[in-house]
Amino acid sequence: MVTPFEGLRPAPPADVEWLVGARSSADREGGYRVGWTVPVGHDGVRRVLPPLDPPGAAGSQGAGPLTTGGAEPRRRWADVLPELTEPDVAPPADLMDRLPADASVGALIDPLVELLRPLTTTPDDCTFAVWDGWGWSRQARSITVVGASEETERELRARHDRAMAAVESFVASCPVAPGWGGRDQFVCRGPLDALRTIGGPGVVEDEVSSLMAQVWWPADHAWVVAHEIDDEWVYVAGGPEVMARIDADPLLESTPVGLDDRL
Question: For residues 173 and 188, what is the distance between their CA atoms, to the nearest angstrom?
Fold first, then answer.
């Protein structure tokens, strides 16, 4: 049984101050830059793309990291959208048309949690900044009930309203970090595993409709992960060991980027 934001608490003001101070100034001349999203202060940065045809996905049950379930080679971003595997290359104008329909940044949550956990001394004390504009964060989103009796529909809607009220109450209790272009973020704190509980209530009771936090980092600042809300990939910043582990992971495709590179 999991509930939205389970195990999380409002972050202290110092976390907000660090996040605001660690971002590059938003000078839009020349296009959007990685440093607007990724906090400064680490040796390296990687753009990390979600796995396509990941092991365990439909059609790839029991697959290894480089093949699908039928032993066919997994699709690679270098073949699908090579622009995203090259540093300082602006996303193509037809990005949305060429983006694979099954590409989802949510597919990175579990792999990154497991990869980054041993690379921090404080996995039980992390901070998460979440965009304040998701539909569930400040106002209830109605649900559609199909094929249920009136009594069941009333029960489902009441249950959903209670879950949404709890989410809204938690969000309202968190401090807010101002961001560029309407990207203000509420900031909370808890164990690394709580990343999986960030989101709204799912359709099924005791389920979370998970979303990727926009910035998250451990208390020892060993690494930081940043996600621009319109993208299906993330940026991970850290020291040489963190970069080496990401580069060596057979499930992930990553590209070295700089803070001045284009998003």
Answer: 9
Q: Quote the tokens at residue 173.
A: 């209790």
State which amino acid sits at residue 20: V
What's the CA gap between 23 and 226, in Å, rounded? Answer: 11
Query: Percent of the chain beyond pLDDT 70?
Result: 80
CB 167 within 8 A of CB 4: yes
Residue in the block written with tokens 């993330």: 234
Reported for 173-178, long-range contacts at CB under 8 A and 24+ positions apart, including other chains, are 173/10, 174/10, 174/11, 175/10, 175/11, 175/12, 175/13, 175/15, 175/16, 176/16, 176/132, 177/16, 177/19, 177/20, 177/129, 178/20
In whole angstroms, what is the distance from residue 8 CA to residue 179 CA?
22
The residue-averaged pLDDT of 173-193 equals 91
Q: Comparing C-alpha atoms, which of 44, 39, 40, 47 is closest to residue 88?
A: 47
pLDDT at 62 over 50: no
Structure tokens at 157: 């809607």
More confident residue, 164 or 138: 164
pTM listed for this prediction: 0.84
Task: Tell me how far apart the alpha carbons of residues 40 and 259 are, in angstroms, rounded to a whole number.
Answer: 8
The answer to whether the CB of 126 falls within 8 A of the CB of 217 is: yes
138-147: long-range pairs with CB below 8 Å, 24+: 138/168, 138/171, 138/172, 139/168, 140/164, 140/165, 140/168, 141/200, 143/203
Rg (CA), the chain: 19
pLDDT grade for 166, boundaries at 50, 70 and 90: confident
Residue 52 CB partners (closer than 8 Å, separation 6+): 74, 75, 76, 77, 80, 100, 102, 103
Eight-state DSSP code of residue 223: E
